[in-house]
Amino acid sequence: MQTGTLKTDAADVFYLQQGTGPDIVWIPGGDQTGEEWAEQMAAFPDYRNTSFDPRGAGKTVVHEPTPWPIASFAKDCAALIAEVCTPPVNLVGLSMGALIVQEMALSHPDLVRVAIAMGTSGSKAGFIHEWEDAEIRFRESGGTLPPDFAMVHYALLMYPSEVLGDDALWEKVKPIVAAAYRERDGDMLAAQWQACLDYSAMDRLPACTVPLHVIGFGQDMQTPPARGKLVAEAAKDGHFHLLEGLGHCSLFGHKPEVVSAKIREIIESTP
């Protein structure tokens, strides 16, 4: 695994890269860092895999004040692809990373061969909007969660009941939840989540020229798959795939092989 930092006027973006072959770029979700994609990278040894720490998490340093719109996250990603990859690339993202995938396909289509957005939504409404807004306001008011409470609170949004009801599986994924949330900086969490809450590309997706594949997870409490289906239906070349029995973060520590198999199928079936 090679690591490096791409320095731009806007940010010093920390990235990881391994392997050789066609490029896959993995975009983390909110509160995640690039190294958390190690399981998926390992499933694609015949590709060059790149990931990075997005604004507000990990080792990336940002030189611009908040708020950071999703377009700014996409500019960071575009600069990284142009510098360390051979575009157009296969682009994969989860949650906040899936919103960045959408924006990359719309604003930087020359860099993207196929866009895969997992656990994504279009315009936030209803429960999703109310929940994210409440989390942001809680953090902005100085609210903090004790580490043990934060871990179990966010685990409910990350994993399905199969994981939470199996003691061995729970012990396996606990470090993943802990890495994202036990010691999370409240201001940075709020900045990332506000970008997600404010973003919608639904009015632009009908003109998207990049194939957009949306993967929904049947037990996703954080972003129910019906929300992702609307994104796929809005896109000019949109496709929806439903993986039953998986939660928002099942690709980490739960059933990564199921997700990687679907991703490979999409990439290898794209002309």
Describe the structure.
With 271 residues, the chain is an alpha/beta fold. The protein has a single domain, classed as 3-Layer(aba) Sandwich (Rossmann fold). The protein is 42% helix and 19% strand. The chain is built from ten helices and nine strands. Helix 2 crosses helix 3 (96-107), helix 4 (126-140) packs antiparallel against helix 8 (186-198) and helix 5 (147-158) crosses helix 7 (167-181). The chain starts with a strand and ends with a helix.
Q: Could you list some keywords that capture this structure?
A:
single chain, 271 residues, alpha/beta, Rossmann fold, 9 strands, 42% helix, 19% strand
| Proportion of residues in β-strands | 15-25%
Order of helices and strands: EEEHEEHEHEHHHHHEHEH
Distance between the termini: 29 Å
Q: Fraction of residues in helices? A: 40-55%
Structural class: alpha/beta
CATH C-level name: Alpha Beta
Largest sheet: 9 strands, mixed
Number of strands: 9
Radius of gyration: 17 Å
Number of domains: 1
Shape: globular
Q: Within the CATH hierarchy, at the fold level, what is the topology?
A: Rossmann fold
DSSP summary: helix tally: 10
Please give the structural blueprint:
Elements: E1 2-7, E2 11-18, E3 23-27, H1 38-42, E4 48-52, E5 61-62, H2 70-84, E6 89-94, H3 96-107, E7 112-118, H4 126-140, H5 147-158, H6 161-164, H7 167-181, H8 186-198, E8 212-217, H9 225-234, E9 238-243, H10 256-269
Parallel strand pairs: 3-4, 3-6, 6-7, 7-8, 8-9
Antiparallel strand pairs: 1-2, 2-4, 2-5
